């Protein structure tokens, strides 16, 4: 076995995605520093970690689970309304339409509340 293979460290590969707009910018910055894109990316992340530039998540894991649960309930409500409307679309009275409009407004408010928690 060669010396090179014996000293080789075990690495973990990390992948992330860039948009079509971001990729040329990252390639240009890497080129300016005479680095490959993977080396440049690693350097940027290491600098962000050492300089404390990585932000803490706005919500913790438990809050995230609660938001997911609430979104699932809202999705269920929307599906029930859609199913009912599709089943009874020819017999909807103005009063029923008004009630659905009110229910949809309540759902919109619930979604707005959840969105504010994420800001």
From TrEMBL:
Highest taxon of the lineage: Bacteria
Residue stretches making up the Bacterial mobilisation domain: 68-112
InterPro entries associated with the record: MobC (IPR008687)
Listed name of the protein: Bacterial mobilisation domain-containing protein
Organism listed in the record: Enterococcus faecium (Streptococcus faecium)
């Amino acid at each position: 076995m060669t010396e090179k293979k014996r000293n080789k460290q075990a690495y973990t590969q990390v992948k992330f995605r860039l948009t079509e707009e971001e990729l040329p910018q990252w390639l240009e910055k890497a080129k300016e520093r005479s680095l490959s894109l993977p080396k440049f990316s690693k350097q940027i992340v290491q600098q962000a970690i050492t300089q404390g530039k990585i932000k803490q998540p706005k919500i913790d894991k438990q809050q995230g689970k609660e938001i997911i649960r609430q979104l699932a309930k809202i999705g269920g409500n929307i599906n029930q309304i859609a199913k009912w409307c599709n089943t009874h679309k020819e017999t909807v009275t103005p009063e029923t339409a008004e009630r659905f409009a009110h229910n949809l407004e309540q759902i919109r408010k619930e979604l707005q509340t959840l969105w504010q928690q994420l800001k």
